[in-house]
Specification:
The chain is α+β, with helices and mostly antiparallel strands and 262 residues long. Helices cover 58% and strands 20% of the residues. It folds into 2 domains: 128 residues, Alpha-D-Glucose-1,6-Bisphosphate, Chain A, domain 4 (2-Layer Sandwich), CATH 3.30.530; 115 residues. It contains 3 helices and 6 strands, in the order ββαββββαα.
Length: 262
């Protein structure tokens, strides 16, 4: 059987837990307490994972988190019921949580003190010291997952910008090709107008109308080219900014992974 205290073996960790208090039905009772540098929600989620992976189900009683029949060590053959509560230390320290633990004999009334309670208090403090180590690992894992997700999103956005850049480049080249064709058509239309200088009025009007339309089309194409070029410049700026964001996310991820691997 794996003991709760085994997480401390081979690791130089000074005890973090101390004797504090837990409130139950408006009554204060002595309890093991540890100060954790995480939000209450994260602590409760980490506690649930810590216990459920060891086969214990979470329940509740009057606002307390409860796990029943927990074996605190090899001598705890009958099992203990563990009652937890969380509290924020202050409004200014919302990411600092006090985790309180009252361990009692299995199925014992929470408010009844027995001769073995003092021994369970010591074991509860060791339990919280072990949990504090787990919480650091748990929090680091969450940070790795969060930073990896952020990096994936940043890379996905970069891929979209690259695709947009390809489309814009193609659009610009097509517009430039259309403009070149337009200018070529204008030369032909002007030559045609000149050739029809002695033709009847209808023929000359048709030739002039054709040339005017091409001139108008040239103005429209030039506007589209300027707009496409502006979009490309904006895309280039966005890609540079996005690459900076990717580099930042990558560095952050590597830093958290380095801490994870220590």
């Amino acid at each position: 059987m794996i003991l709760w205290m085994s997480m401390l073996c081979g690791t130089c960790v000074s005890a973090q837990a101390y004797i504090g208090q837990i409130e139950y039905k408006k009554t204060q009772a002595p309890a093991a307490t540890v100060r954790l540098p995480y939000s209450a929600g994260l602590v409760e989620d980490g506690l649930k994972e810590y216990m459920t992976t060891k086969g214990y189900k979470k329940s509740s009683a009057d606002g307390l988190i409860v796990f029943r029949g927990v074996l605190l060590d090899a001598l705890d053959t009958g099992g203990s019921d563990l009652y937890f509560s969380t509290a924020v230390t202050s409004r200014k320290e919302k990411d600092v949580t006090l985790l309180n633990l009252l361990a009692i004999k299995r199925n014992q009334d929470l408010l009844v003190r027995t001769q073995g309670d003092s021994d369970r208090e010591s074991k509860a403090r060791l339990f919280l010291d072990s949990l504090a180590i787990f919480m650091d690992v748990y929090n680091t894992r969450l940070q790795v997952n969060s930073r990896q997700e952020s990096l994936n999103k940043a890379q996905k956005k970069m891929n979209a910008l690259i695709n947009d850049s390809t489309d814009l480049d193609k659009k610009l080249r097509n517009l430039q090709s259309d403009l070149a064709q337009n200018k070529s058509d204008q030369v032909k239309a002007a030559a045609e107008l000149q050739a029809n200088i002695s033709a009847d009025d209808d023929t000359k009007k048709k030739s002039q109308k054709k040339l005017n339309r091409l001139i108008d089309d040239q103005g429209t194409l030039e506007k589209k080219i300027r707009r496409a070029q502006g979009d490309m410049d904006e895309n280039k700026t966005s890609r540079k900014e996005q690459q900076d964001e990717i580099d930042k996310d990558q560095q952050g991820l590597e830093a958290v992974k380095a801490r994870q691997n220590k």
